[in-house]
Amino acid sequence: QVQLVESGGGLVQAGGSLRLSCAASGSIFSINTMGWYRQAPGKQRELVARIISGGMTNYADSVKGRFTISRDNAKNTVYLQMNSLTSEDTAVYYCNLRNGLGASGSMYWGQGTQVTVSS
After folding, report:
1. In contact, 21 and 79? CB cutoff 8 Å
2. Given pLDDT bands bounded at 50, 70 and 90, which one contains residue 12?
3. Whole-angstrom Cα distance, residue 79 to residue 88?
4. Which of 14, 33, 47, 119 is the most exposed place for a label (fewest CB within 10 A)?
5. What is the Cα 35 distance to its own chain's centre?
6. Could you give the CA distance from residue 14 to residue 21 in angstroms, rounded to a whole number?
7. For residue 78, is pLDDT > 90?
8. Cα-Cα end-to-end distance for the chain
9. How far apart are CA 19 and CA 82, in angstroms?
């Protein structure tokens, strides 16, 4: 099993910044993908950004140039630096870890952290 603990959400004004953190513990493979998803009220959960243990990243088009995902493999921690926030970024943000590569690996979710951007 893998446990994911998120922190860093909160209320911020439009144009501001927040940094989310997610610490993973438990049965973590050396090769894994960690990422952030978000779910706004009435909408489906969507990928925000993800990063493979080797460092390769990909982002949703809506956050490219504003958000940066990074990780500290020694700490099994992933970060999401969010800049130039808009009301469209308001959502519950969930940390995700998938062990191994590909779609067959076990996947785990954090409990979610609320990000609210006021306009």
Report:
1. yes
2. very high
3. 20
4. 119
5. 4
6. 20
7. yes
8. 40
9. 6
Identity of residue 15: G
pLDDT band at 116 (very low <50, low <70, confident <90, very high): very high
The β-bridge relationship of strands 113-118 and 10-13 is parallel
For residue 11, give the amino acid letter: L
Residue 68 CA to residue 41 CA, distance in Å, equals: 24
CA distance 76 to 88: 29
Radius of gyration of the chain (CA): 14
**The two structure tokens encoding residue 115:** 């990000």
Nearest to 36 by CA among 15, 55, 21: 21
In the 8-state DSSP scheme, what is residue 101? S
